[in-house]
Amino acid sequence: MFETLSDRLTSVFSSLRAKGRLSDADIDATCREIRIALLEADVALPVVKAFVAQVKERARGAEVSQALNPAQQVVKIVNDELIQILGGETRRLRHAKTPPSVIMLAGLQGAGKTTLAGKLARWLREQGHVPLLVACDLQRPNAVQQLQVMGERAEVAVYAPEPGNGVGDPVEVARRSIDHAVRQQHDVVVIDTAGRLGIDHEMMRQAADIRAAVDPDEVLFVVDAMIGQDAVTTAQAFMDGVGFDGVVLTKLDGDARGGAALSVRHITGKPIMFASTGEKLDDFDVFHPDRMASRILDMGDILTLIEQAQRTFDEQEAAKVAGKLASGDNFTLEDFLEQMMMVRRMGPIKNLLGMMPGMGQMRDQLNEIDDRHLDRIAAIIRSMTPAERTDPKIINGSRRARIASGSGVTVTEVGNLVIRFFEAQKMMKRVAGGMGIPGMPGGRKAKAAQQKKAKKGRRVSGDPRKAALGKAGAAAGAAAGGSDGPDGQAPTPPGLGALGNLGGKLPPGLQLPPGFDPSKLNFPKQK
Q: For the region Disordered, what residue ranges are annotated (predicted)?
């Protein structure tokens, strides 16, 4: 959704990186480009004016003029201001001190409230709550049936005493749902109300009556992120007619320009709490202003990627595979298949790679990624026998033909997969061996240092005379039957035992000249 805005801002900042110092003219030109980029993204004009004025004021301050890299400092300023416009800090749900907590959904027709109710209920269930969906949209045809289907898919109970299609009182249904939740021990109640237009005073009054009847802890206004600046007018009408505590953005995966996300928070003063990024029930998460700003500026969203990996990967299984990766040989095609399926459960590969920094510049390549290629790889591996998965070296021509026939691919594709797997094994071995990088455990230089240390023995003097004396002394000691002591000192030759208390050893470094026999010396007798 923010691709156009992200591309424009990236091009603006790339022109600044070549400048060592920013003048007032450079700052004015940059702010003008930022203003055009925001207006093209359909951001409300008051929001654009306030944003550009704040960026320009900070860019002319001391934090940019004294910075080592002014261009990066301007990027930081724009990032900080984007975070503030999007809400500053992540806003969490408020829960009642005494269950159940009541959450009421309101919004325009077609904004996606009923689908969002199922997504929110599923998210609450994953957080450890026991939610209850309440069907209070009794006007739209089959709205009650749609909510029941969403509840079944989300594995959440649905309270729908009225058939809908214009039959029943939504205010009374909402009031009775609280008693039902208490009896059935549900700690969160999610009320799905009828869609309405901002000018429909009767429907707005119905929403206000439901709010007065159940006194919800949170009233969430559901906004279609594709409607642009009109979201501001609608949000203001709901704010005056019903009132709400937070905003939920839907259809963030669309190709619209996304100005609603940057406008609603600034105009209404209410935080964006959740975002829906797809049609599936798990395409829903808490809205993080700092992460969204980072995505807009093409700086990636590593934290969200890590959280998705933590929810998908089993820690014990990951540790087991990490040990196999370190050895290289023990990593089999079965392990490769398990890891690939874990990555597939995290979501489309294109979305995962899109969270990496700088991937906005490779958008065309990302659009060419087809997840069905991973499905073909999985089919090839599953067509192998357990022995072939463990030891792909036994896969000969006839086996490749059988595997290709079973997986619906060509023999060439099977051969290419086996070759790439062997290459991956070699790479793992190099990584496990340190790849020759200094300081890496198991590297070539580390092994060479260990071998050199093992070969390192007694040092020999570079002076030939000293070296000859040392060799002669060692030979004399061996001829005398002596041996070096545990600390490397030579034993005392015969006849020198009377020269003080030497403990039977010569002092360190003392060596006798060759042919010298101290036993023939005549010492005075001791009294």
A: 435-527
**One-letter amino acid identity for 261?**
A
Q: How many CA atoms lie within 13 A of 234 on its CB side?
A: 22
Identify the pLDDT of residue 232: 74
Helices (H), 200-332: 201-214, 230-241, 259-268, 289-296, 302-312, 315-327
224 annotated as a binding-site residue = no
Q: What is the pTM of this model?
A: 0.63
* Contact between residue 250 and residue 224 where contact means Cβ atoms under 8 Å apart: yes
- The annotation status of 18 as a binding-site residue, yes or no, is no
Which residue in 510, 501, 499, 520 sits closest to 477, CA to CA? 510
Residue 373's CB is within 10 A of a number of other CB atoms, namely 10
| H-state helical runs in 301-438 | 302-312, 315-327, 333-345, 349-354, 363-367, 372-382, 386-390, 397-407, 411-432
Q: What is the pLDDT of residue 259?
A: 72
Please name the amino acid found at residue 52.
V
Q: Is 114 annotated as a binding residue?
A: yes
- Domains observed in the chain: 3-86 (1.20.120.140), 101-299 (3.40.50.300), 313-434 (1.10.260.30)
Burial of 38 (0-12, 13-18, 19+ CB in 10 A): buried
Is residue 357 within 8 A of residue 298, CB to CB? The reply is: yes
Rounded CA separation 251/67 (Å)? 40
| 111 carries a ligand binding annotation | yes
pLDDT of residue 328: 56
- Which of 5, 27, 4 is closest to 15 using CA atoms? 27
Name residues of the chain where pLDDT drops below 70.
1-4, 17-20, 62-69, 196-199, 228-229, 254-258, 261, 298-305, 307-308, 310-315, 317-329, 350-351, 354-367, 431-527
Q: Is 194 annotated as a binding residue?
A: yes
Predicted pLDDT at 102 = 92
3-state class (DSSP) for residue 275: strand
Tell me: is residue 517 an annotated ligand-binding position.
no
- Determine if residue 251 is labeled as part of a ligand binding site: yes
Q: What is the pLDDT of residue 247?
A: 87
Q: For the chain, what is the total number of helices (H) and then of strands (E)?
A: 23, 8
432 is in an annotated binding site: no
452 in a labelled binding site: no
Are the CB atoms for 523 and 498 separated by under 8 Å?
yes
- CA proximity to 151, closest of 133, 129, 168, 137: 133
Q: What's the angle, vertex CA 140, arms to CA 134 and CA 142, rounded to 5? A: 75
Q: Is 88 annotated as a binding residue?
A: no
